């Protein structure tokens, strides 16, 4: 961006978020996270991988709860 373009620049107007529509999703009670895993941190980091294949079955609630807890970042 040139200096002239920077001087002529004006930010986009502030927009209000859209109003929610429809019904709120049901709250799902998940079990407490499984904290007793005996896999050392470095082993878990070394063996992690991404996958673009998805199973036809859903995750068990305990697995989903543990994954969401770990992804939250505030693991107290």
UniProtKB/TrEMBL annotation:
InterPro entries, alphabetized: Nitroreductase-like (IPR000415)
Top-level division of the source organism's lineage: Bacteria
A GO MF term: oxidoreductase activity
Region: Disordered, residue numbers: 1-26
Stated name of the protein: Nitroreductase
